[in-house]
Amino acid sequence: xxxxxxxxxxxxxxxxxxxxxxxxxxxxxxxxxxxxxxxxxxxxxxxxxxxxxxxxxxxxxxxxxxxxxxxxxxxxxxxxxxxxxxxxxxxxxxxxxxxxxxxxxxxxxxxxxxxxxxxxxxxxxxxxxxxxxxxxxxxxxxxxxxxxxxxxxxxxxxxxxxxxxxxxxxxxxxxxxxxxxxxxxxxxxxxxxxxxxxxxxxxxxxxxxxxxxxx
Length: 215
Description:
Elements: H1 2-7, E1 21-28, H2 32-44, H3 52-66, E2 74-77, H4 91-97, E3 102-104, E4 122-124, E5 133-144, H5 160-172, H6 191-198, H7 204-207
Antiparallel strand pairs: 1-5, 2-5, 3-4
Helix pairs in contact: 2-3
């Protein structure tokens, strides 16, 4: 429910819907690369003019909207920002309140070792660890769900030591991706997918066989 999200954020980040409004957080799993992105690129290669992943997600979520012709469905993507430069929604907070992935933050560590350093939080999924992404929010403004019960996310990094290790790896060594394997995972990105996301965005078109003109 939108109210779960708004209840733990400052008013400046609130979503402008009644508290009981139904919302879904959309995640992409490791298999998205082969099952969604590559087929999308093969089919739409001449129409890809911005980030291929963003366009692929947009394409699939627009198809979800088509499945509900009698419903108003609002979509907010993870990359969208307001004129104030703030994100339109805080993806990790949304995933946490929806019970999709646990958002580990500095406040989850009792004996904080970082003093004045800025420490960012990170979501960990009980099945995929850090090998997933939060892609968007689907909101159904006309559907109110006052009796929906909130499910807590799975606390899969439960010890103090592991939480400190996770936040250390994410904040100071995020490039090597070790934080993603903080727990034992069922599935991770393929080598091809790792290479793709490790490549600067401007050069990813070449990896997918897209021409400079398409870019």
